[in-house]
Amino acid sequence: MIRVLLVDDQPLLRSGFRALLDIEDDIEVVGEAADGVAALTLARRHRPDIALLDIQMPVMDGIETTRRIAADPTLAGVRVVILTNYGLDEYVVDALRAGAAGFLVKDIVPEDLLHAVRVAARGDALLAPSITRRLIDRYVSARPRVAAGVALAGLTCRERETVALVAQGLSTTQIADRLVISPSTAKTHINRAMVKLHARDRAQLVIVAYESGLVTPGGG
């Protein structure tokens, strides 16, 4: 059962998302909150698998809430998925830096919402949609880059290849096909790269890949 926490200051949106999620046999909404402070309290109480978090909220916004969830070792199993509008794109990379696993736009169709929750719950990339790639191309490219040797020196050649493919939005299965290895081997490379780069999840691997120059905006 995938346990979900809904956090948004708009009751109507929470109700709509809850109605979609609650009818699924493998998904359970364990709580709702209207701001980040309440979200932290509920997250510690229920330990959800997924926290769907609005990026702009009163009291504490989604970025700070994400940062606090990521910093709390008791919430290590919680994957944050940010809810945003097209007009708030500039905040998305900051949310990924803070520890978010990915993001969804609020006008997402029901089927895509359910798919995204399941993808995030199994730890796979929630970064494949083209809009996400454009955001990362646009905003990460504007950030100062760290030296590639500093960020990536500890990786094997195969781990570097794997991180580059994660940054291009490929799933574990797609990476395995591209590198002609098994999905379990691909997952091992990804996990080892996350440990070496101190990345919480794949979203942060993407940030490192761009900032180090391993992947370039608009390129690969």
Automatic annotation (TrEMBL):
The keyword Ribosomal protein does not apply. Coiled coil: none annotated. Residues 3-121 form the Response regulatory domain. InterPro entries: CheY-like_superfamily, NreC/VraR/RcsB-like_REC, Sig_transdc_resp-reg_C-effctor, Sig_transdc_resp-reg_receiver, Tscrpt_reg_LuxR_C, WalR-like. Residues 148-213 form the HTH luxR-type domain. PROSITE patterns: HTH_LUXR_2, RESPONSE_REGULATORY. The modification 4-aspartylphosphate is found at D54. SMART domains: HTH_LUXR, REC. Keywords: DNA-binding, Phosphoprotein, Transcription, Transcription regulation. It comes from the Bacteria. Transmembrane segments: none annotated. This is Response regulator transcription factor. It comes from Micromonospora humida.
